[in-house]
């Protein structure tokens, strides 16, 4: 995590950043928070999860709030990233269900030979639904904020460097219509997000060479999709298009897909990918992607050429922080352009906070939203707890899904955490047998001294839902015995969570 003070409520701005600020305002900021003040003016730059959640909190605390957003409420998370990608994946998931059809006794009219038949996805319909749901979600957020009395400005914001004699800052806004306006604020929150990283040798054209934000331009299923990058985004799109019926080649520069995730989970998913016909090129790196007459050529660093119809370049994101006047206003940026914040979302600049992907903390909508809420609670003097990354839940929407919370097994294996590990295959669960689920597992980690649940991993269909009981246990410091003594439904997949806790009794 970027700049984090040893005392999460310390680290006031440096003297040069508070020049000309009244002594009272300076003392408030240096003390860690301002008292709640009805009518404080808050300007939020960015309407993604970090921005709109912060706006709702600030309005609840009586502030007058403006949100400046150029793309649409919800930002890229709603319009080009999380919502559309997971909608696409939800469609693909239906096609993976047919794998269990013969075992469950389901067959097509073709005969009793075990062939469940073929299901096809109409990509024009799929993409239309993806875009429609994203726009609807954006409009719903927009309406909610307006009903709460929050002012939404369609445009881009630039933070002015000066601080007024009464401690306010100024944001210059260029609207979508090209008009200029100025907003004064006691508090500014930067929640400008990130954009797809572009390789100079693989310039996207939106037709054949694509970023993750452009995948919804497709109206036909790619004949052969090469995915460059085997992180979360690359793995999710590769798995989805493979399930939708496209030929997929996944280019991974590491030994395995999902290199930053639980090793057992990553190995399982790579095995599923290969079993479903995906080509996974491990320890391979793309040198260039070139457009051809009817597709693309992906050149690897070892000289191999992979010819395909389309290429998705999924190699991370770049923070959207340039051209906003942040450094001139006293905001510290890392070499990568990320805004440096502490655990209550403060920057080093007087009364400027930041949240979301532009901070580089964790690229999760849930973390962005929490950062935004914490920023407003802190800035407006409400009760606040600093951001705690030890209890963050995360999910990878492959099929099966991978959900994690708390410490990782690697931390226990290395001795960093003194704990125990239990690993239960999902196939032994009665409900899983009924559903034809054969791949996946439940892991739970406990503290050796106290028996408290400190983390877990679930690989299964709907793991994003199943991880919640473990997340509660981690957050509330429940012991394995407390988790084991909670009644579960029989048969249910959550029964494996209870069983995992029981195996850690007296471990």
**Helix fraction?**
25-40%
Widest β-sheet, arrangement of strands: 5-4-3-2-1-6-17
CATH level-4 homologous superfamily of the largest domain: FAD/NAD(P)-binding domain
Which consecutive residue ranges, at least 5 long each, have pLDDT under 50? 1-20
Outline type: globular
Q: What's the CATH architecture name of the largest domain?
A: 3-Layer(bba) Sandwich
The total tally of domains equals: 4
* Arithmetic mean pLDDT: 91
Instruction: Give the strand tally.
Output: 22
What is the fold named in CATH at topology level of the largest domain? FAD/NAD(P)-binding domain
**Cα distance, first to last residue?**
33 Å
CATH class of the largest domain: Alpha Beta
Domain Pyridine nucleotide-disulphide oxidoreductase dimerisation: 395-500
Family: Belongs to the class-I pyridine nucleotide-disulfide oxidoreductase family.
Organism: Georgenia halophila
InterPro entries: FAD/NAD-bd_sf (IPR036188), FAD/NAD-binding_dom (IPR023753), FAD/NAD-linked_Rdtase_dimer_sf (IPR016156), Pyr_nuc-diS_OxRdtase (IPR001100), Pyr_nucl-diS_OxRdtase_dimer (IPR004099)
């Amino acid at each position: 995590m970027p700049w984090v003070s040893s005392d999460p409520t310390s680290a006031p701005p440096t003297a040069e950043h508070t020049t000309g600020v009244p002594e009272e305002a300076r003392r408030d900021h240096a003390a860690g928070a301002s008292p709640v003040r009805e009518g404080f003016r808050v300007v939020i730059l960015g309407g993604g999860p970090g921005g709109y959640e912060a706006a709702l909190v600030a309005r609840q605390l009586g502030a007058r709030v403006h949100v400046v957003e150029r793309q649409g409420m919800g930002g890229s998370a709603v319009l080009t990233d999380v919502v559309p990608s997971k909608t696409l994946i939800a469609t693909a998931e239906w096609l993976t269900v047919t794998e269990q059809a013969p075992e469950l006794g389901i067959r097509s009219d073709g005969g009793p030979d075990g062939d469940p038949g073929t299901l096809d996805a109409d990509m024009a319909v799929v993409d239309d639904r993806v875009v429609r749901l994203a726009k609807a979600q954006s409009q719903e957020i927009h309406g909610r904020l307006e009903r709460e009395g929050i002012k939404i400005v369609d445009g881009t914001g630039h933070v002015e460097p000066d601080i007024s004699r009464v401690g306010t800052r100024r944001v210059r806004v260029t609207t979508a219509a090209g008009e200029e306006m100025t907003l004064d604020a006691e508090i500014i929150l930067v929640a400008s997000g990130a954009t797809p990283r572009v390789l100079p040798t693989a310039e996207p054209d939106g037709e054949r060479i694509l970023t993750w934000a452009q995948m919804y331009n497709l109206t036909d299923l790619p004949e052969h999709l090469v995915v460059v990058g085997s992180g979360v985004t690359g793995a999710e799109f590769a798995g989805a298009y493979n399930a939708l019926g496209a030929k997929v080649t996944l280019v991974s520069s590491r030994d395995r897909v999902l290199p930053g995730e639980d090793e057992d989970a990553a190995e399982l998913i790579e095995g599923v990918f290969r079993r479903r016909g995906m080509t996974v090129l491990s320890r391979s790196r793309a040198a260039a992607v070139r457009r051809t007459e009817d597709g693309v050529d992906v050149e690897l660093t070892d000289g191999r050429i992979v010819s395909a119809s389309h290429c998705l370049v999924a190699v991370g994101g770049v923070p959207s922080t340039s051209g906003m006047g942040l450094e001139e206003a006293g905001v510290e940026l890392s070499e990568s352009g990320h805004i440096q914040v502490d655990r209550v979302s403060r920057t080093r600049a007087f009364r400027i906070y930041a949240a979301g992907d532009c901070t580089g903390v964790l690229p999760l909508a849930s973390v962005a939203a929490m950062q935004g809420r914490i920023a407003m609670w802190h800035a407006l003097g409400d009760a606040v707890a600093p951001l705690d990354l030890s209890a963050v839940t995360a999910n990878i929407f492959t099929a099966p899904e991978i959900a994690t919370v708390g410490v990782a097994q690697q931390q226990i294996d290395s001795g960093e955490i003194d704990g125990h590990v239990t690993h239960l295959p999902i196939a032994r669960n009665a409900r899983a047998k009924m559903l034809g689920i054969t791949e996946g597992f439940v892991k739970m980690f406990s503290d050796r001294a106290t028996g408290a649940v400190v983390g877990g991993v679930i690989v299964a269909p709907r793991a994003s839902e199943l991880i919640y009981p473990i997340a509660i246990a981690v957050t509330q410091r429940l012991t394995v015995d407390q988790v084991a003594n909670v009644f579960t439904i029989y048969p249910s997949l959550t029964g494996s969570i209870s069983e995992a806790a029981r195996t850690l009794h007296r471990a």
